[in-house]
What does this fold into?
Amino acid sequence: MIETGQHFEIVALGSVGSTNDEAHVLARQGAADRTAVTAVEQLGGKGRRGRAWTSPPGNLYLSAILRPSCPVGQAAQLSFVASLAMRDAVCRFLPENVPVAVKWPNDVLVDGSKISGILLETGPISGGDAAYVILGMGINLAHHPDNAERPATSLAALNADPGVAAARDALLGALDRWDTLWRARGFTPIREAWLSDAIGLGAPIQVRLPDSTLEGVFADLDMDGALLLEQPGGRRRITAGDVFLAR
It folds into this structure.
């Protein structure tokens, strides 16, 4: 089913492998900038580094097709755009006194527990530019995993139950605002807004890489979105990894 929202054309599906896979198909067929694919459930949901993403009915599963016409390295900044949009969408349904934070590279935490996931993928590269960007986004509305490596939560567990449609509209409205700002003014305002709610900034952290674990202080975010880790020998630039707050 195709719906026309205020900011996005919405393709609403039932049970799919993953909304990102469906979005890639539509993008290759010429789907317009700001097309959103949603699903009731995902049978093959995926997270970063190929991890499985449990996707039962009742949560929000959405992949946005964006065509920003920019180098693929710059398109990676959209991960932070998505984080801010998801933060705003979650905050809309929670009391102001509930702490909501972002965690590098693209998690949203409520009172220290993960409530969402983001998976950014790009289309074919030509001349350094990506043909399109897929922003896969999920928010735990009714369900959350109990056996995850890190604590997880859902809006229902926090006594909020907006329903999938309201959460979808809140997310797409916020994504429209942050994406419009990014396209107009670049990464600077996105970086500033993200850092204002970043958990672990200025504190000791661990960064797990595929072959090692680094320790240091989360010093800053550079203008490409890389994490700057302060270590005794100087700052190290991290472009990919899993961050854990030091105990």
Residues 26 and 158 are 35 Å apart (CA to CA). The two ends are 47 Å apart (CA to CA). The first strand starts at residue 2 and ends at 4. Helices lie at 19-28, 72-75, 78-92, 164-185, 187-196.
